[in-house]
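Late entry, flavin mononucleotide complex.
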Amino acid sequence: MARLTPENVTVATEILSRYPRPKSALIPLLHLAQEQDGWVTDDAMEHLAELVGVTPAEVVGTCSFYEMFKREPVGRYLVNVCTNISCQLLGGEELLAHAEEVLGVKAGGTTPDGTFTLEDVECIAACTEAPCLQVNYRYFHKITHDELGTLVDDLRAGRRTEEIPPHGVVARIRQHIPADRAAGPADPAVNVEPPWLATEEKKP
Amino acid sequence: MTVSNAPAIITARFGDEAAYTLDRYEATGGYEGLRTALAKTPAQVVEEVKTASLLGRGGAGFPAGVKWGFCPPGVFPRYLVVNGDESEPGTYKDRLLMERDPHQLIEGVLIACYAVGCSQAFLYVRGEMALAQERIAQALNDAYAKGYVGKNILGSDFSVDIVLHWGAGAYIVGEETALIESLEGNRGLPRLKPPFFPAAKGLYLQPTIVNNVETLANLPWIITHGGAAFAALGAENSKGMRMFAVSGHVKKPGVYEVEFGVTTFRDLLYAPVYGGGIRGDHQLKAFIPGGASAPWFYEEHLDLPLEAGAVSKAGSMLGSGAVVVMDETTDMVRACLRLVRFFARESCGKCTPCREGTGWLEKILERILHGEGRPEDVNLLLDVCDNISVGMAWPPRQTTICPLGQSATTPVASAIMRFKDEFEAYVGGPAEITVKVLGPAFVGPRREEASADA
Ligand SMILES: Cc1cc2nc3c(=O)[nH]c(=O)nc-3n(C[C@H](O)[C@H](O)[C@H](O)COP(=O)(O)O)c2cc1C
Ligand code: SF4
Ligand code: FES
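Prediction complete; structure with ligand written out below:
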């Protein structure tokens, strides 16, 4: 499976240039790999190790700590139902049970056609809109069992692709720092007082 | 019921659908705070924030201006890390601030960097928040193009890059030293404090200020209107306005910006402009005043003001401004298990009491809920809690590297001490409790109720 494409190496290079130390870019780069392939492949992790200058084992070490990185293929749509306290109080667990029935898989499972993976997740910061869920990290607030059914039908029929990109794509807008505007990364090894502190006494 | 008519500060633009664009932000006073700050010396800006006595909004409630002063002199570069990892169950405010008014946050970041002398800022947004990441990326791109961020900001000698960074799903990364580890590209394991207090030894072991999104979002207003105007709102040490998410069994769940220090829990839960009362005219059973980690409160706590000192004295905390309301239909054993499961899942595994203890608590609660528990299990749960944080005192005693471990004990001690009968119904017999539970919020049923039962 895949190393980063040349276009993604260009993106990776720009991301790397913002950090004082390359390893800091690792999580954004793992997202980039997942965006490319839908999950994080071993080949991609090896490629990232080369780009960042660490061992592949270090990349796996970081990758395996974080819930969002999938080291096996998952569905095109990740359906994450929140069952934490505020959602539980308003039917989050029942919503998850309904999702299991509609999709025909238990939480953690992927439908045989590879369209959906269902997850039982912790609080997603939409507690006043309970019960709620995310599909590929897009929010659906105060969702009823019927609405969940309709949403699944829509996704299956490919009707909401504009709004919900395939799994792996999180933000569709990237930060770009123009070269002539960049202040540049602050090297931890260079102890220089910033000029605006140094000239402090000049102001009234 | 008193509802303060103080005007909104950080949610003031929330009514405006387009507030996230640079045009709308500039048209509504945006970046005026930055201009005002640049006309002052950094020391004067720090003074303004000290006068405001702005408490951190991320959970610990430490005064921002004081924390900034902890950077050792003469050690550079200094970094600013914005904590936008919002994951404490019940907490919902930072995401709104990032999605609806990203420039306000960026302006706050710039003011903080100018005041503290930070040469680079990292804005760490929770990985699961796609829209917040997109809005901030766009806002930063626009702000760079207009000269608000980057080299020689607005023609001055103040230069700083703000780098949008994002996580990948781990609650513990909200803890500031774990956040720094994560930003260094590592697993999110907290560091020992001391020596790793971020202000002294943070990112790349350099002086680093970690501030919450809401904390920083207050800065443009404070600098534009003056610290004294901010400190005129609120009471005691709890100044200004503050966002609270009221969720669970209220008629109007929502995120409300209220006057800090004077508004009471009763106002927040029952006032028509806020929570609007318990849904379906049910009775209040309990509420969590400050996120999953906070000891629970009950009816007798309703008249406490949302004031850090008063809430702490009563044995709990305002934490991250998350108020979760449970009415009398709530099964407290089930609620308790759900909260404990959260901590068990999110424990990073570095310390034994937390890693083992949270797993034990979950297993015992599971078996109780499935009718396989024994009466001794109730005391056993408290015994495990006692091993994680001796005596369940308040403030809690910490036996672990970070406070997550002790946080897992609060739902257990709260639920058992107040609703022991519900546990007994599951385990099929009276449970004897021998473990000492010291926290003042961990209380039994109200006396009237107890005597009414008799
Ligand atoms: C387990 C744990 C999780 C935390 N999660 C968050 C969080 O999601 N967001 C946040 O701002 N602070 C969180 N904190 C608090 C931070 O460690 C830190 O105190 C805070 O970001 C400082 O910002 P402030 O001074 O502006 O409040 C957490 C603390 C702990 C112990
Ligand atoms: S208390 Fe728990 S979460 Fe915190 S460092 Fe220890 S094991 Fe990790
Ligand atoms: S508890 Fe479900 S979003 Fe917070």
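The radius of gyration of chain A is 21 Å. Will revisit in the morning.
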